[in-house]
Amino acid sequence: MAEEKISVEKLQEMISRGPFNQWLNFIVLKSDMDGIEVKATWREEWVVNPDRRYTHGGILAAIVDVAADYAIAAQLGRPVPTIDVRVDYHKAAMPGDLTAKAKVLRMGSQHSTAEAYLYDKDGALVASGRGTYFTAPLK
Description:
Layout: H1 8-15, H2 19-24, E1 26-32, E2 35-40, H3 57-76, E3 82-89, E4 98-106, E5 111-119, E6 125-134
Antiparallel strand pairs: 1-2, 2-4, 3-6, 4-5, 5-6
């Protein structure tokens, strides 16, 4: 495991490697011992209901999952597969960039747990979640 959190620049490089993460246009805002903070730049394709214009819950869940994963990656030095993730929705996310704040709850040699909170452009909590991730060494 890494001795300390990796830099914002290194985490940005790591998160931007994946095509899905590129599509979500993650921008790493913070990476320190308290966790990470990332922004996902809003896209019109996220709208699920054209009349009400709120963001699809699957997009919110994906952002929560990625943020929690990369909170672990910031400590471990690599992203890890998701074993299980639970997401709670608190209010509809209307058009606008979303910011996720994530932190590691438990680092284990086989499995680790992290949580993330997702906020809209006005700072209101729209979703939160907790995931379990496979952190055993890859073979």
